[in-house]
Design goal:
Length: 509
């Protein structure tokens, strides 16, 4: 779904918590469409809905994204870059020196609450628009499902957050209170459950690719139950997504035959894609508009710095990037002889030793870069600031993820996991796709499979926290048990408000 940002005077009149909209106040109001003149037509309702979708893949002007923040925090990557201060917000999450003033936490807070605010405005205003009831109900369902996704990320990342279900006014925006995290989860489940019946079963990908479907909402709901350790409920949701056997999903989801095809930029909205974040090469993002257009900044971030092909016939056509998020040696050792290695890792170490390329050994260099998102000359934009306008989509959820989660949920709920069981079939379908032999369904095997299958896709840090392994696995990076399982509430949100810092970060909440 092509993304655009709809700015309306309602956002100027009031703000989600709190800094996420302050940048929008410094504008000439004559350039805005007045709220009183908007939300009148079906097309205006659709444009407003698009503005909510826009926050799913939001990127900051400082090149921060949810995926690169969580990747830098994990054991699979170093922050990298050109120096220890390059994109300092990634460095601080990488070595766990972040504070309440760090940009990584602020970006994720603002991203989430901007999405919540836009969804709340939409849900309030759409009621007064004369339009087809079926279309209106679908739009409402999409907005509720997105609001649930935003809140799910927020509660996992910060735990102690407010629950805001309608647009705030200038008079009450600083008076909101945090609620128990259990209340947030209850609300997320309610929003998703109410949304599912009015979401489409499938969408035409040529015109609506990227929009939410019933399958995507069930998958998110399954993840919510996983986080709450409600294993039978999680397994039931994933069963609705995955089908009774691999390849039998009622929504048409199937694993791609070739793992590497998942990252072919021409293969958007494929049969394995459940929820996809959409980027394009045509939004003409420039250095002055980073984060406000639709090019994927990950493609330039993860490319090898000062990349030079020496043997043009053998060298990959990578663009010269900025050397962020190199894989750790430990991760490479785990995937080295796995069939997914070449589709996952751009092995500049090997290419350089063979005399095929040269590149700069930048900060925390290992020689192992992310292949999945690597920008290439063959995929760059044809106009505009080429480095910033790659069209590589990102998967928020894909089928291999839900197969492995269903196997885990069944294992933890006490269901059978031996040969021929549902858990066994789902787990080993992921392995069979890349030509690997079956393995028993154990937590050790599931954890390793998720690490290799979903590498660099933003899942690893959440998995480690969810499994209770983060304090051990991430100790060498500076992770502190009882503290770093959540992020600090940004300092700007505490000033002149009733929001309190979490106890884990020295506060009283």
């Amino acid at each position: 779904m092509k993304k655009s940002i709809l700015y309306i005077a309602a956002i100027v009149a009031s703000s989600q918590l709190f800094t996420a909209c302050r940048k929008q106040l410094d504008v000439n109001p004559r350039e805005r469409i007045l709220e009183s003149n908007y939300y009148k037509t079906p097309s205006e309702a659709f444009n407003s809905l698009v503005s909510v979708y826009d926050m799913l893949g939001n990127q900051s002007s400082g090149y921060l994204t949810k995926v690169n923040i969580l990747s830098a925090a994990s054991d699979d990557h170093y922050a990298g870059g050109d120096s220890p201060s390059d994109i300092g917000d990634l460095q601080s999450i990488n070595n766990y020196t972040l504070t309440s003033t760090s940009g990584a936490a602020s970006h994720l807070w603002n991203k989430g609450f901007t999405g919540v605010y836009r969804a709340n405005v939409f849900l309030q205003k759409v009621q007064g628009i004369a339009m087809d009831n079926a279309t209106k109900n679908r739009y409402i369902a999409e907005a509720k499902a997105m609001r649930a996704i935003f809140y799910f990320d927020l509660v996992k990342l910060f735990k102690n957050i407010p629950l805001i279900t309608e647009p705030l006014t200038a008079g009450n925006m600083y008076d909101v209170l945090q609620v128990p995290s259990a209340d947030i989860y209850t609300f997320v489940i309610k929003d998703l459950s109410e949304a599912i019946p009015n979401l489409p079963i499938t969408v035409p990908v040529a015109s609506e690719g990227g929009r939410l479907t019933q399958g995507a909402a069930h998958a998110v709901l399954g993840k919510v139950y996983m986080w709450l350790q409600k294993w039978p409920e999680a397994a039931a949701e994933f069963a609705l997504v995955n089908g009774s056997t691999p390849g039998s999903s009622q929504y048409g989801y199937k694993l791609l035959t070739n793992y590497a095809d998942l990252w072919n930029v021409k293969n958007k909205f494929n049969s394995e894609s459940i929820l996809e974040i959409v980027y394009n090469t045509t939004s003409d993002m420039g250095w002055g508009t980073v984060g406000s257009r639709e090019g994927n900044v990950m493609s330039i971030l993860v490319g090898p710095r000062n990349y030079v092909p020496v043997n043009a016939a053998l060298a990959p056509d990578y663009i010269s990037g900025w050397s962020f998020l190199p894989f750790t040696k430990d991760f490479f050792d785990q995937i080295h002889y796995d069939p997914r290695n070449k589709a996952t890792v751009a092995n500049l170490d090997s290419l350089e030793k063979a005399g095929i390329v040269t590149y700069k050994h930048a900060y925390a260099n290992t020689g192992y870069f992310i292949e999945k998102y690597a920008g290439r000359n063959s995929t760059k934009a044809s106009s505009g600031q080429l480095e910033l306008n790659f069209g590589q989509d990102m998967y928020e959820i894909r089928l291999a993820d839900t197969y492995l989660l269903e196997a885990e949920a069944l294992l933890k709920s006490g269901a059978g996991v031996g040969a021929g069981t549902k858990a066994y079939m789902m787990f080993n379908a992921v392995r069979a796709r890349v030509g690997l032999n079956p393995l028993p369904v154990t937590m050790d095997n599931i954890m390793r499979e998720r690490r290799l299958e979903l590498a660099a896709e933003g899942h690893r840090w959440f998995d480690l926290v969810r499994w209770g392994l983060a304090p051990t696995v991430l100790a060498s990076k500076g992770f502190k048990s009882g503290r770093n399982e959540i992020l600090p509430i940004p300092e700007n949100e505490l000033a002149n408000s009733k929001i309190l810092q979490s106890k884990e970060w020295g506060g009283s909440k």
